[in-house]
Design brief:
The chain is α+β, with helices and mostly antiparallel strands and about 400 residues long. It is built from 4 helices and 23 strands.
């Protein structure tokens, strides 16, 4: 019996010890949980709050010029084209040039046999000369007779009627002399013209692009024998729509690009009526140093199609789109908070502001309304850029 009681006491003692140990462990676990919670509240939260704020730079609305450039395709044409047509008909006896040759103004192109016309003109000129010589002799005789009769008239030896008859004869001979002189001048001009026309010459300096003549062939006054293009800078032609026509005027500057080379030029003319086949308006321009560009080749043409001068503008990168509307983010400074702000920067709050825009060239955009040059606008995008966000402005802002 005593032995049994002793065993029960020992068993109760062990049970009590295990129960006490369990309570200690439970208390220890609870304490650990509390400590962990306190650490997360006071230490982890403090770490998050001290992380640096997103950094942005800022800008303001400024009045600037904005222009939009349009690019089209144009064709380089010869500066001037001359179609060489003979002024007389006849057999071609000499050819002085071939396609590709250089010619100066007045250089011979070909020789035409118009000897019959020359001979005929020579006969007329010689005949006019003979007639003029005969009339000159008659005038000389009439003048001598008039001088003699005038002396007699002054002395009263002849009547006034006789003197007037002699004077009238002299006046008629003098008038005939003038007519003969004119006839001789006309005949000489005809002769010189036929001689001149026998040699077809270049009307201007340039390159002989093509020829249409053969030795012993017949040249006519209706068919060209050669085509010459001038050595000018070159003429550019391109077509524009009626909308673009309003923005391009003679004298406007253009830029031309061909295989990486850039040329400048000016508009010289524009059509007032569209082409029947294209419905577009032809524009011509002179290209500086355009003579080095192959004629007939395509080039890129750039010109200013829209322009706004001295208008409120922002960098296009500052403008964002949401729901079909345009926005910018303005900043106002938060003087009460320095947490997360690096030295030299300023804490700020972001505001989402809707704006209305105008002309844009891709880099600058016109601001019609919404913000003014009094507003400071975020110019740097970050994932934390939204209305109400806290940021730090680089360098303290503008």
């Amino acid at each position: 019996m005593n032995e049994q009681n002793t065993m029960e006491k020992q068993q109760n003692k062990k049970t009590f010890q295990w129960g006490r140990l369990g309570k200690i462990l439970l208390i220890a676990c609870a304490a650990a949980v509390v400590i962990l919670a306190v650490w997360r509240i006071f230490f982890v939260k403090k770490t998050v709050e001290t992380n640096p704020l997103s950094t942005v730079s800022t800008t303001r609305v400024e009045n600037k010029d904005i222009s939009v450039e349009t690019s089209l395709i144009g064709i380089m044409m010869p500066g001037d084209v001359y179609y060489v047509v003979p002024k007389v008909a006849g057999e071609i006896t000499k050819i002085y040039v071939n396609a590709g040759d250089k010619a100066k103004a007045g250089d011979p192109i070909c020789q035409i046999d118009n000897q019959k016309q020359i001979d005929s003109a020579k006969i007329q000129m010689d005949s006019a000369q003979v007639q003029l010589d005969a009339v000159r002799d008659s005038v000389a005789m009439a003048k001598t007779n008039l001088d003699r009769m005038e002396a007699l008239y002054q002395s009263g030896d002849i009547s006034a009627q006789s003197y007037e008859q002699v004077k009238s004869a002299y006046d008629q001979a003098a008038a005939q002399l003038s007519a003969c002189e004119l006839q001789l001048s006309a005949a000489k001009l005809g002769y010189d013209t036929q001689v001149e026309f026998s040699t077809v010459t270049a009307p201007a300096s340039g390159t002989v692009d093509s020829t249409n003549m053969t030795l012993k062939g017949i040249a006519t006054q209706t068919a060209q024998v050669a085509v010459i293009t001038s050595e000018s800078d070159g003429k550019l032609q391109f077509n524009v729509t009626d909308r673009l026509l309003k923005s391009i005027q003679p004298g406007d500057e253009i830029r031309v690009e061909k295989q990486g080379e850039i040329f400048t030029g000016k508009v010289t003319s524009r059509a007032n009526m569209p082409g029947q086949n294209t419905g577009l308006y032809l524009v011509e321009a002179k290209v500086n140093d355009g003579g080095v560009i192959a004629k007939g080749s395509s080039v890129k043409v750039f010109f200013t199609s829209e322009k706004a001068e001295n208008v409120p503008s922002l960098p296009t990168a500052c403008i964002y789109y949401d729901g079909g509307k345009q926005y910018v983010f303005t900043v106002t400074y938060d003087a009460e908070t320095d947490a997360g702000v690096m030295e030299g920067n300023r804490a700020a709050i972001v505001h989402k502001v809707e704006v209305q825009t105008g002309l844009s060239d891709g880099k600058l955009t016109e601001i019609a309304s919404g913000v003014t040059n009094a507003d400071e606008i975020a110019a740097t995008w970050t994932a934390q850029l939204y209305g109400g966000a806290r940021v730090q402005v680089l360098g303290g802002g503008n």
